[in-house]
Structures are given as structure tokens and as C-alpha cells.
Specification:
The protein is of the alpha+beta class. It has three helices and nine strands. It has helices at residues 28-38, 81-89, 110-119, and strands spanning 17-22, 46-48, 51-58, 61-68, 73-78, 96-97, 99-100, 104-105, 125-126. A hairpin with a 3-residue loop joins strand 7 and strand 8.
Length: 157
């Protein structure tokens, strides 16, 4: 599986698992929306391109922005991966299941799926949990210096 995503073992039909889809870069969400419209709900329960929040400085001001988590990839949630693969083959949507040797599609590892589910909101956005970069930690002892630095030893820096 690309990008170091942990893959799980093949599972029997009936268990809801997430599978990676390769889609055109920049069109991840539009392809997912199309797939949800044209593939029956019993084959595709959800298709989404996960996004994440990150801090960015624009025009001198810090703010949160939402960006794609994996460029060129999306996830499909299904209980029947072979049925989904057949349905994808019959569509004109530019999406293919990622796997090895044609018919061996590997789901995302259950631990990774659970972590992503827990960290994303209902819109499939991984929320930023770190501190605001505008706030700097207060230091009681002045600027951080390495022990033995030139200034500490009385030499000019």
C-alpha cells in the first residue's frame, strides 16, 4: 500500500472495511461525490478524501486551513470489495482500488482505521489538536541557550 499506510489482511464479505482508491490528484472529493451517486449503497457505504487542519500564516495572520491528507488518494468504505471493484470497472469514474496483482485488494489495517475514525470529525477532517502557533511558551529563565555557548563563556557570538 502506498505512502506507508498500514494494510490489514483480507477479510470475509460482510465486514465494513476501508480500501484505498487511486484518483486524479486535485479531484479527490469530486470523484468521491460521483461514486456515491452512481454506485449502489449496498456496495459503497461511503467514499471520502480525508482532509486535515493545519496552521498557516497568510498576510501576516495565523489561521487554520483545511488541506488534503493524501494527494491522489481517497478511501472507500465497503462490505463487498469484489462487488465494488466490478462496479468501479463498469463506471467512467477515474477511480481504481489500490492493491497488488489485480484482484488482491488489502483493506486499511483495523488499528489505522480506528485511529482515523476517532481523529476525524463527521466531514472527514482530522482536527488540529496542537497549540496555536501564535502563542509562545513563557520562559522564566530567558532565551534558550545551549550549555557552553559562546555568549555564556563571555566570547562574542
Amino acid at each position: 500500500m502506498p505512502m506507508g499506510l498500514p494494510c490489514g489482511r483480507r477479510v470475509p464479505k460482510g465486514n465494513l472495511r476501508w480500501y484505498l482508491l487511486r484518483v486524479p490528484e486535485g479531484r479527490e472529493q469530486s470523484v468521491c461525490d460521483l461514486l456515491k451517486r452512481i454506485i449502489p449503497g449496498e456496495l459503497l457505504e461511503d467514499a471520502f478524501a480525508p482532509r486535515k487542519e493545519r496552521w498557516a500564516k497568510r498576510g501576516g495572520a495565523w489561521g487554520l486551513e483545511t488541506v488534503r491528507m493524501y494527494r491522489g488518494y481517497a478511501f472507500a468504505a465497503t462490505r463487498d470489495v469484489s462487488g465494488l471493484a466490478n462496479a468501479l470497472a463498469r463506471t467512467t469514474a477515474a477511480a481504481e482500488l489500490v492493491g497488488e496483482f489485480g484482484r488482491s485488494w488489502m483493506p486499511l489495517a483495523p488499528e489505522a482505521q480506528d485511529w482515523l475514525e476517532a481523529s476525524m470529525d463527521g466531514e472527514h477532517v482530522k482536527e488540529q489538536r496542537r497549540r496555536d502557533p501564535r502563542r509562545r511558551p513563557a520562559r522564566a529563565d530567558g532565551p534558550a541557550r545551549r550549555p557552553g555557548s559562546a555568549r555564556e563563556q563571555g566570547r562574542p557570538s
